[in-house]
Amino acid sequence: MKFEQYHPSEAFQNIIAYYWTLKTTEKDFNVSKYRFVPDGYVDWVFHLGTPWQCNFSGKDSNAATDRFHVFGQIKNYVDLDISQGAIHVFGVKFYPWAVNQFWKIDMHYLTDQSVDLESLELKQIKTLSDKIINAKTLTSRIKAVEKYLLKHCSTNQNETLQTVFNRFDHNTSDLNLNNLNVSKRRLEQRFKTEIGISPHHYNKIIRINNIIDNLKQNQEDTLTQLALAHGFYDQSHCIKDFKMFTGYSPKQFLKSINPDGDILNLVAN
Question: What is the pTM of this model?
Answer without folding.
Answer: 0.88
